[in-house]
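Entry for the shared binder. Reason: the reviewer on the internal report wants the predicted structure included alongside the sequence.
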Amino acid sequence: MEENLHIAEASLGGLFKTILIIIGAFVALRFIGQMMIAKRNLDEQREMEEREKKFQRERKEKLQNFGKVTVSKSNPGSKGDVQDIDYEEVK
């Protein structure tokens, strides 16, 4: 009878140890998950700030050039889809 009691005690200790290991693994995974979420949020914030700066730069450029006329030269050989059409006057 004493042998059966000893086996029960050993397995009860192993059960507690296993439960503690499982709880520790969950805590570690949750911590790692929180760290990954924090990193993703920081990356998104950094990206959003870059987009905001780019937007502000473009807005500033457009406000500085507002009302100014620019002439760009194009190659005479590359007219694209433009066609010159002769019109006849209808009487």
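Summary line for the report: Helices lie at 2-64.
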